[in-house]
Specification:
mainly alpha
Length: 142
């Protein structure tokens, strides 16, 4: 049961990273500001997605893998904290998409919804999550 919870959480992270990558690509293409922040954020999110994919490929029937997955998926543990960070980021990106009055006329003005400080904080949080997950993978492979 515990391995199913961990696997579901890892899948949730993978789904969130996919949505963030998709939305941030729209901003990168259409928004005129913050290209550097968007690029850096996309790089970190993609990197996190790659690490999460590796974790998702762990065999939960192995006791060592089960221990790693269990440790990562504890309440308020790395997986839960990562889910919170990614959900918050996704909500901010989606909020920037909502301009119903402009869409009526076929206009879709996109302005990067994160300040420089918010973007840097999001990037640093994603880097921390990725680092913890990479450490867990290294422990598993030793």
């Amino acid at each position: 049961m515990e391995s199913l919870d961990a696997t579901a959480s890892v899948v949730s992270i993978a789904q969130l990273t996919g949505k963030i990558l998709s939305l941030s690509w729209e901003y990168y293409i259409e928004a005129k500001d913050a290209k550097e922040h968007i690029e850096c954020l996309r790089t970190e999110v993609k990197s996190l997605q790659d690490v999460i994919t590796e974790i998702g490929q762990l065999d939960p029937s192995s006791s060592a893998n089960l221990a790693v997955l269990g440790t990562l998926n504890q309440q308020d543990g790395p997986v839960q904290q990562c889910l919170i960070s990614l959900t918050d980021l996704l909500m901010k990106l989606e909020k920037g998409q909502r301009k119903p009055s402009m869409r009526k006329f076929g206009l879709r003005p996109l302005k990067w919804p994160l300040s420089s400080k918010e973007a840097n904080e999001a990037i640093m949080a994603i880097e921390r999550h990725k680092f913890l997950f990479m450490l867990a993978l290294n422990v598993d492979q030793t």
